[in-house]
Design a protein that fits this description.
311 residues; alpha/beta; Rossmann fold; UDP-galactose 4-epimerase, domain 1; 2 domains; 7-stranded parallel sheet; 4-stranded mixed sheet; 9 helices
């Protein structure tokens, strides 16, 4: 049995579906403010969805529910783009909520915890690739909350003896990335424009470089992390492959079979000059995995889902 917080969200729903394919009974804890029940098979007897807001609701109310679980995947968090959240709210949910969930896991004998952190803990937007050992310098409240939550994980792993792996996720994309479920990437936005018959938009010169990883590869990383019995560890999860917005958009237009390729360039935004790529050496060494879905294949799957979902 596994517990997944945020299991009705974008990445969480893909994780729950994969766990069910493996025959795992899953307890889903989700506030349902942004996650959607319909992301999962609500008629599946192997899934139990419980409305629960991490950092707000009392964990004592769900202690019996999660007792007997082997793994906890803690994905629930609020993002800085989801409504207007103060730094206090991010601290309560992303940091204090993480502490409460880990203590709950310790009290019921859960054997391994996987926590999803973020590239935003690094803060910087320039080369070289980001490595886990570098000094963190987050620049927004979300990044600070994830950095503080990692420290909570390290402290409680030492105190409780529960192995905890923190995965710093890079730019994850794929089907079911609705507005509100994580950061609405340029992939989602430009495919939406293309499906409306509008030109894709690029802000600035399009030479910004990002690390895109397909959601299925993130799910594989989450499961491998759970099944690797190490003590506290932090690993980047990305493709490690630099992709410019210009190249990304060109591939997207090829996939959508646009005959007349026109891109609308607009004034540069805050991403100008970005080079945000994961150094994946540590993850590949400890977990033995690399990104398996190519950018072209991942974009094709995403486009087909968006096209069919829109129809």
């Amino acid at each position: 049995m596994a517990v997944v917080t945020g299991g009705c969200g974008f990445i969480g729903s893909h994780l729950v579906r994969r766990l069910r394919e493996r025959g795992t009974f899953v307890i889903v804890l989700d506030s349902l403010e942004y996650g959607r029940r319909e992301n999962l098979d609500v008629n599946d007897p192997g899934i139990r969805i419980e409305k629960f807001k991490v950092g707000v609701d009392n964990t004592a109310d769900i202690r019996d529910l999660v007792r007997g679980a082997e793994f906890l995947f803690h994905l629930a968090a609020v993002k800085s783009n989801q409504g207007v959240y103060s730094s206090e709210v991010l601290q309560n949910i992303n940091v204090e909520g993480t502490e409460q969930v880990i203590k709950l896991a310790a009290s019921v004998g859960i054997k391994k915890i996987v926590f999803t952190s973020s590239l935003y803990v690094y803060g910087r937007m320039t080369a070289p690739p980001m490595v886990e050992t570098e000094r963190l310098n987050p620049t927004n409240d979300y990044g600070f909350s994830k950095m503080d939550a990692e420290q909570v994980c390290a402290r409680l792993s030492n105190q409780t003896g529960i192995p905890i792996t923190c995965l710093r996720l890079f730019f994850t994309y794929g089907p079911r990335q609705y507005a509100g479920l994580g950061y609405r990437t340029v992939i989602r936005k430009n495919f939406e424009r293309i499906l409306r018959g509008d030109n894709p938009v690029i802000y600035g010169d399009g030479n910004q470089v990002f690390d895109y990883i397909y959601v299925d590869d993130v799910v594989s990383a989450l499961i491998q992390a759970a099944e690797t019995q190490t003590q506290f560890k932090i690993c980047n999860v990305g493709s490690g492959i630099p992709t410019t917005i210009n190249d990304l958009t060109s591939v997207m237009m090829d996939i959508a079979n646009i005959q007349v390729k026109q891109v609308e360039y607009r004034p540069a935004d805050w991403t100008v000059g970005s080079f945000r790529i994961a150094d994946t050496a540590k993850f590949e060494h400890f977990m033995g995995t690399k990104s398996r879905v190519t950018l072209e294949e991942g974009l094709l799957r995403t486009y087909q889902w968006m096209r069919d979902f829109r129809a």
